[in-house]
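task queued by scheduler; priority normal; single chain, no ligands, no partner chains; default sampling; output format set to structure tokens
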Amino acid sequence: MGLKTKKDVGVVVRQSGVSFRVWAPFADAVGVIGSFNDWNEQLLIKEGDGYWSGFVQGAVPGQEYKFNIHLGKEVLVRNDPRAKHFTTSAGTSVISGNNFDWGTDNFEPPPIEEQVIYELHVGTFNRSDPAINGTFYDLIAKLDYLKELGINMVELMPVGTMMMDRGWGYAIDYIFAVESLYGGRRGLMEFVKAAHRLGIGVILDVVYNHFGPDTNLDLWDFDGWHEEGYGGIYFYNDWRAETPWGKTRPDFGRPEVRQYIIDNVTMWLHDCHVDGLRLDSTIYIRNVKGLDNDPEHDLPEAWQLLQQINTVARKIKPSVITIAEDIAANDYLTKPVNEGGAGFDAQWELGFPAALKQALASNDPDNIDFTGLLGQLTRGYNDNMFERVIYADSHDSAANGSARLIEVIGNNKPDSLFVKKQSLLAATIVLSAPGIPMLFQGEEFLERGSFNDWQQLDWRKAERFRGIIKAYSHLIALRKNYWHNTYGLCGSSIDVTHVDQENKVLSYHRTCNGGPGDDCIIILNFGKREIKDYRINWPSDGIWRLRFCSSWHSFDPEFKPIAVADVKTEDGLGSLLLPASSGLIFSQDP
């Protein structure tokens, strides 16, 4: 299905005024009103294809406006579906200019195999005033911290305008506007520009599986037409509209709706210089019931839209990363478009945090179970382990009836020695396993509880647990091969070489090209006791240097000093001291 396009839909600022174009195919007439004409209507011209357009002499950015949709004697007053700014979330459309100075910004994100993502929520990550939402400018104030931690990609939860003064961001009113309480469109651009200056890319979470909070939205019944009580021109008007969030699934079969979404993708990547997109709940885009392999409820036109999104994104920015959140773990999500796939670079590995919780939750040696983790370590898509994003916590796994990993495993003792050791054991796994690793805000300083949209991070913990942060920073540096001796962690190969269910020890070999400076051995002791002279097989003989031990005393005063050392191997065998509840990383000097 080809994409029918219409140029200059929405507002375009010209030299002597502003042009307006809006899609309202069932209107009898359409006019624009605003502060530029004292709210006295200027009628737009009918273009014959459902669009209406006109030019207002002297209109300038910053002025407010709305559309009058005429239906006989009835007039519907609507905001612009493509407005890029509003007076408030439930207010009036505002003309937005395109005069942001990007300077020399030509940032290119690092290769996917070197990316380390940090997911955050703008409203709660950092606040200059504890009583109000955080803003993009508050994020800018913490960019140096993220840079020092080693993060090179930040993923923002949705930033679109919302009906209420706070939220997760997934009930977006207008997909082209940025939430004014966060700092609006300009604030987002300032953040992206500042992040790029520090070598940090920006991924934006976008929501196309549903629009808005149902009938409170101006898109609902936009030009007066609808069928069977459904939402009108922007939505399906039958059973296909049903979603877990209301009857608000966009009509992916309408060319104008498809262009509405594609133009939004273009805006984020081209105008706002965003480096990647994470599409929320793609399973509910491509299937009405959110099911995989369910032809009865599949939406073929939605699959084609996903393909178009990825094709257009890559055309605009070849270095872009696109990520799907799709519970089905279907290889076709990340297959190339020319092979019938949707064309995403990666998808969230939703089973990974569950497997970590299973492996780390028990303090009873008899109940430690890492069988689920074994399956997750070697799971990939299309023979490419980097087609997945792996993590211990995300906004979803740390909420929705659950909580952050340390809360689940901590038994109401989130600052205990057990929790600190298990947290760093989890971090060792996430940052040494093949895939694109992702951290969730505050994870690195043991933020506890469930994620919500009102409680800011407790940044006092960043000082209290600065040793834990140091451990995360060290792991991230190894993951990115900072010291040029762990290149294997940038590779996609993994070979589980040792499974000892009795002692609760697991080891795997990570490699890219192989050899000294490349091959990495990761040894995980899930058990609660120290093991001396533990023997395992190694890929080659020689000296294997200890690059990381998650229970090093320097990471926390409660970690007792342990004489873990380099290992000398002969005939493929070597022995070592294994600290309890610890992860170790070894490699050879290049």
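post-processing summary
- DSSP finds 13 helices and 27 strands in the chain.
- The chain has three domains: 10-94, 139-479, 487-587.
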